[in-house]
Specification:
Beta-ketoacyl synthase-like N-terminal domain-containing protein; 22% strand; alpha+beta; acyltransferase activity; Peroxisomal Thiolase, Chain A, domain 1; Thiolase-like; Ketoacyl_synth_N; 10 helices; globular
């Protein structure tokens, strides 16, 4: 694959204990953590009653998506989006399966519509009024890398800017023994084609693992802080962005690595 490139206009981040990108950057810089942090994200995109009822995975996806758009100064309604999640809302999937097996007439219609993998994308497009395409991607532990490839491909084929969101929650039930995930994690990037000397950039190249060495930068501060979430494979990129590193590598599937070359304007000019 030839290199795909983008400018990073905005970043959103949320995990328990580090509820913003500002908090994540401070933690990477010197280990600082906020004195108090909410146990659950509270996406302002939703009305208060919807905010309380939304699954945690939807809440974290919307929270970081809106944060990335606000950081970039972009209107969410004008953007195509890519939502990457290994599991979607696995707790509701487990509920659906167990209820269908034991008492199928008792399935909740509300919980059913939150069980689909594109639930977060649906909430986002409805809440923002976005009429552009919204893509939902799952590729096991390569979900974020493949979502990033999709977002970069959309830029390369004409989109001015694309919102990329990665998120996962805790896995439960029998599937937890097959695909483990703990905690709640979400992060978002607002990517664009425009050239900006004051913003970080990334250039992505997909290759074989053996061609680019081991993924040795996978245990940065954020990756150590949230190691067991299904979306943790995206954290080498966010560690690199927070720490000003020139390269990050992401698992892109069996035998494949997505190598990301990064530039950081504050290091180039400061």
């Amino acid at each position: 694959m030839s290199a795909l490139a983008a400018t990073i206009e905005g970043v959103g981040f949320w995990t328990r204990g580090l509820p913003s990108w500002t908090d994540a950057r401070a933690f990477v810089a010197d280990g600082t953590r906020p004195e108090s942090a909410p146990p659950r994200p509270s996406p302002q995109l939703l009305a208060p009653n919807e905010r309380r009822r939304a699954p945690e995975t939807v809440a974290v996806a919307l929270d970081v998506a809106l944060a990335a758009c606000e950081a970039a100064g972009r209107d969410p309604a004008t953007l195509p989006s890519v939502f990457a999640s290994t599991h979607g809302e696995l707790a509701i999937t487990d509920y659906m399966c167990s209820t269908l097996a034991s008492q199928p007439q008792a399935v909740s219609p509300t919980r059913f519509h939150n069980s689909v993998h594109n639930a977060a994308a649906g909430y986002w497009t409805i809440g923002t009024g976005a009429m552009h395409g919204a893509t939902a991607i799952s590729a096991f532990d390569a979900s974020f890398a493949q979502g990033l490839v999709e977002a970069l491909a959309q830029l390369a084929t004409g989109a001015e800017a694309v919102l990329l969101v990665g998120y996962d929650g805790t896995s439960t039930g029998p599937l937890a023994r097959v695909s483990r995930s703990e905690g709640l994690l979400g992060a978002a990037l607002l990517l664009s084609r425009g050239v900006r000397n004051d913003l970080p950039t990334l250039q992505a190249t997909l290759g074989d693992d053996g061609a680019d060495g081991d993924i040795t930068d996978s245990r940065g501060a954020l990756a150590r802080f949230t190691p067991d979430n299904a979306m943790s494979p995206m954290l080498p990129l966010f560690d690199a962005l927070a720490g000003g590193l020139p390269v990050a590598r992401l698992n892109a599937g069996p035998g494949r690595t997505l190598r990301l070359a990064l530039t950081h304007p504050e290091l180039m000019h400061g």
